[in-house]
């Protein structure tokens, strides 16, 4: 969605235009879901995170000043929502959460799906600060400066976290 189109939809949504709000949310949902899936590690939790993020976004839309893209604002809400959940629960996704879906896979897809599961499990076991930069950089293909802006940290910190995250993830994947 072009920036000027987003601005127009935002103006209408803030005035109470439900169709404009729905269009904005529809545009954000797929990207937020991909990030949520890699942060959370499973589909159900990712769906919950996106739903909670969308609700928070709707409630906070009036406060959005438009200094950044709406996706950046929504991304920040998603990450903060995820952090709150981690603090509340303090438990990570286990591979057993994926076993039911493995039984339904055709044999030719099992290897590819197993690799994806190993990657998701490895990501889920990373500390949140490392997982967030990995997902942003590789899944979202975001530049380091944008990640730094979204997370409110210096670009050098993003670089060092990315380096550490790659090393941690590679080590965990080799252990399997």
Automatic annotation (TrEMBL):
Residue ranges of the TM segments? none
Which molecular function terms from Gene Ontology are attached? DNA binding; sigma factor activity
Keyword Transcription regulation on entry: yes
Q: Where is the RNA polymerase sigma-70 region domain?
A: 26-90
Per the record, the GO terms for biological process are: DNA-templated transcription initiation
Read off the Gene3D superfamilies from this record: 1.10.1740.10, Winged helix-like DNA-binding domain superfamily/Winged helix DNA-binding domain
Check the record and name the Pfam families matching this protein. Sigma70_r2, Sigma70_r4_2
Q: Keywords of this protein's UniProt record, alphabetized?
A: DNA-binding, Sigma factor, Transcription, Transcription regulation
Keyword Lyase among record annotations: no
> Sorted alphabetically, which InterPro entries does this protein's record hold?
RNA_pol_sigma-70-like, RNA_pol_sigma-70_dom, RNA_pol_sigma70_r2, RNA_pol_sigma70_r4_t2, RNA_pol_sigma_r2, RNA_pol_sigma_r3/r4-like, WH-like_DNA-bd_sf
**Domain RNA polymerase sigma factor 70 region 4 type: where?**
118-169
**Family of the protein in this entry:** Belongs to the sigma-70 factor family. ECF subfamily.
- NCBIfam families, alphabetized: sigma70-ECF
Q: What is this protein called?
A: ECF RNA polymerase sigma factor SigW
Organism from which the protein derives: candidate division TA06 bacterium ADurb.Bin417
